[in-house]
Amino acid sequence: MSKSIKLAILGLGTVGTGVINLINDNLDELKRRSGRDIVITEVGTRRQRDDIDPNIIQNSDLMAAAASDNVDIVIEVIGGTTLAKDVIMHAIKNGKHVVTANKALLAEHGNEIFAFAEAHNVHVAYEAAVAGGIPIIKVMREGLAANKIEWLAGIINGTGNFIMTEMRDKGRPFADVLTEAQELGYAEADPTFDVEGIDAAHKLALLASIAFGIPLQFDKVYCEGITAITLQDVNYAEELGYRIKHLGFAVRREGDGSGDNSTAGIELRVHPTLIPQNALLANVNGVKNAVLVNSHPLGQTLYCGDGAGAGATASAVMADVMDLVRVLGSKDSNNESTNGHHVPHLAFIPEQLSDTPILRAEQMITGYYLRVHAHDNPGVLADITRILSDAGINIDAILQKPAHKLGQVPVIILTLPVVESQMNIAIEKIEKLDTITDKVVRIRLDELA
Ligand code: HSE
Fold it and tell me: What is the CATH number of domain 137-306?
């Protein structure tokens, strides 16, 4: 067997420990697949650990570990966007290939990091950054390379999906399930990233860039989390044949053909969404993630698996390591065109990235679930439906519940897709009606998935 591949694992939290365990468990398989011995030579940890193999150097100086002569591939699993960025840039500068699970860092600074890596003829691999163990980056960059991606929709936060599933199936309180997700190693260090949709927005920014060949634009992703979802809405949705899932959407819009191109561009949005109960994504539960991709000419394909946790993330990290082992192999055998044999970071040649605009929230097109609370007076429903019809909004279903307190009735309305600016106007008018008692609750609805 040719010389060993030497790894540094920087960060020994859930993921770093998962990578060590995976290597210990599957080393023979890894060697047989790569033809190389794979050795962890250094770990970067601020606190010395007595459960680490004494042959592995425990380095509290993470910058030194990232540049060590004793290392071929640097695995960054520290998290965050400060030290992790410094460490990755330092590793690149020192000619190291990098594997990272850090979606926040790549979504926010990926354009700079990838350009720096290309300039230094090394790779930054990031399978573990999106959808845990599902090899979605490989699929999108390689498996679907011949297709034009039209849209993708996915459950891309395991913690959020776990919480929504437990609430719906077992009626468990939100905070209780979140604590369990933290104990299971699913949640981010700051779990508001999970429940406010930020983690999903990071991942969506990465997926969209690979899908459409656009630069990373995390700041343009429309983002809503799950904290405002009530059991009441979950139950009304079920009654109407829908399920509420937290989804990320990246959609190419060609315009409406009227010559008015105000809706042409790309929608990037994460939000709770009503989808039909029989949709495949509606039945992806617990910590599972799933990404549904619609591409031409292939059509729809679905990728599903564990989206968080030590084993799932370590699986994705080591898949990248295995790819890089092959790149290093060709380098050792004097193959000068290492980069030419590797897929570009965002799947498209960097000079060919497109400037297609990202649509603003008011330009986005979705259906809606509206919950309106009104006094139980004659004509209320007529007033609401007239406002919707004046705004050109097509109603798909209406559910009116009997008055439950002080003569107040909840009216649930499902609409067909509408441009958000039209819906904003209609909701403003509905809320001004004397008969309306509360703010209108709105949740997007999509038949796409
Ligand atoms: N906190 C993330 C999630 C971990 O729950 O999906 C995987 O990226």
Answer: 3.30.360.10
